[in-house]
Design a protein that fits this description.
9-stranded parallel β-sheet; globular; 26% strand; 10-stranded parallel β-sheet; single chain
């Protein structure tokens, strides 16, 4: 019995090590390069100069720490991003509600702590979904047969036209401001790091609206350890000559709030996307509940799919290489029940390595074109490790030991005891520090 318990403890410890050792906790993949073929052409992606928490004592840049006021936080967050290299969103006072997508300036880091969650104010209600059902929208064409909306806008698709018309009539929003219900807009920016945030959208619906994160022409972005749920148009789309971006340890899902168009990740918005751009790394991500298509779907670009986990049994198409794209697919795990895991149309090349696992198939899809390679160094985890590593560590799982539950300042000089002391920027300080500090989640004045 003792031997059994010892063996069990050793096994559990080894599994914990396996689950954590694959996370480099640093930028990697295409976001660290400036060439799709030359490994020596590197890029030092720093964001705002720091991407961990607490903020190191050595960091000399400006930091803003925000908590929710309960109202629309769009302007406050956008202002903080413009004025500071690092913005820390502290979820201890509740969700950050935003009325529309927040513009992100170049050379910035945005970090979430204490379960920070950003949510769109507008969302798809049960009443809206019932009206769409009653009108037969799910059976309408998504490629032709539109019309002119009451606001004079022309729509070419029947389903989108009727959806938008019904929402205008029900909400009175003739300007269709609801379409702007996203979280972040990365528009022609570069050197951006976003980590450890939960992003919640209004529910997917076919209205040509915003994504939770829209990466439009942005370069050298690292989006890491974030949860994406219920994006309106997509969860995270990368388009319009965006390039050299990495998406790692993120989760993508949809709930009952979503209605249709659960198309989670689009790379390239049309077949006319410029060739040579859109080079993207997807590593250790999880496509889960409710995801139906685009995991990702890509036009142009070299796409590296490394050790991702798919449990989306509702999928009608997971990995979807399209015109002019190149895909390197290795070490990925497709769970039992994921039957529609791949299709390609017009891809330049697709390489399926033998180290992928598909529970629904005894063989892998055929590779096509020349062998696809990427110019950076990396290690492929065994596919058998992927479910545990991803399920335990993907999403907003970082910075667990952060000051939490901060309320009023205690006007006291209570000794810190064995607790760490932080200043209001989240930097650890010594016991001799004077001023307002955070000790064990409470604010004190140290004199």
């Amino acid at each position: 019995m003792k031997k059994y318990l010892l063996a069990l403890c050793i096994f559990m410890l080894s599994q914990a090590v396996i689950a954590n050792d694959y996370d480099l906790n640093a930028p990697f993949g295409f976001c660290t390069l400036s060439s799709r073929t030359d490994a020596s052409s590197t890029y030092d992606i720093t964001g705002g100069g720091c991407y961990t928490y607490p903020i190191p004592d050595t960091f000399e840049g400006t930091v803003a720490v925000l908590t929710s006021t309960g109202g629309d936080m769009k302007s406050a967050i956008e202002s903080a991003i413009k004025s500071n290299q690092v913005v820390v969103l502290d979820g201890s006072e509740g969700d950050f509600m935003v009325s529309s997508s927040i513009s992100v300036t170049s050379n910035r880091t945005i970090i979430g702590i204490n379960n920070a969650r950003l949510c769109t104010q507008w969302y798809v209600t049960d009443e809206i979904k019932k009206a769409l059902d009653d009108a037969g929208v799910p059976n309408m064409s998504t490629s032709s047969g539109g019309g002119t909306l009451p606001n004079g806008k022309s729509v070419t698709e029947q389903a989108e036209y009727n959806t938008r018309k019904i929402i205008i009539e029900m909400t009175g929003d003739n300007s269709e401001n609801y379409q702007k219900s996203g979280i972040f807009s990365l528009n022609k920016t570069q050197n951006i790091i976003i980590r450890n945030l939960k992003l919640v959208g209004p529910g997917s619906i076919d209205v040509g609206g915003n994504d939770l994160i829209s990466c439009t022409g942005a370069k050298h972005c690292w989006v890491d350890h974030c949860d994406f749920t219920d994006g309106m148009d997509g969860n995270f789309d990368i388009t319009k000559s965006a390039d050299f971006n990495t998406v790692s340890w993120c989760t993508f899902s949809y709930t009952d709030r979503s209605y249709m168009h659960q198309n989670t990740n689009l790379i390239g918005s049309s077949d006319s996307e410029t060739k040579g751009y859109l080079n993207t790394t997807f590593a250790f991500n999880w496509w889960g509940d409710g995801c139906k298509q685009r995991m990702p779907m890509a036009r142009a670009g070299k796409i590296h799919m490394l050790n991702n986990y798919f449990s989306c049994t509702t999928a009608s198409n997971c990995i979807n290489p399209r015109k002019n794209s190149e895909f390197l697919i290795e070490g990925n795990y497709f769970e039992k029940g994921v039957k529609k895991y791949y299709s390609q149309s017009g891809a330049t090349a697709v390489t399926w390595k033998a180290d992928n696992y598909i529970a629904a198939s005894s063989s892998l899809p055929s590779s096509t074109g020349s062998t696809v390679t990427v110019p950076y160094e990396y290690t492929v985890a065994p596919y058998s490790d992927v479910p545990t590593a991803v399920k335990e560590n993907a999403g907003a799982t970082l910075f667990a030991d952060t000051p939490a539950g901060i309320k009023d300042i205690v006007r006291d000089t209570e000794e810190s005891g064995n607790h760490a002391i932080y200043n209001l920027r989240g930097q650890r300080v010594s016991d001799s520090y004077k001023g307002i500090v955070i000790i064990n989640g409470k604010k004190y004045i140290k004199r």
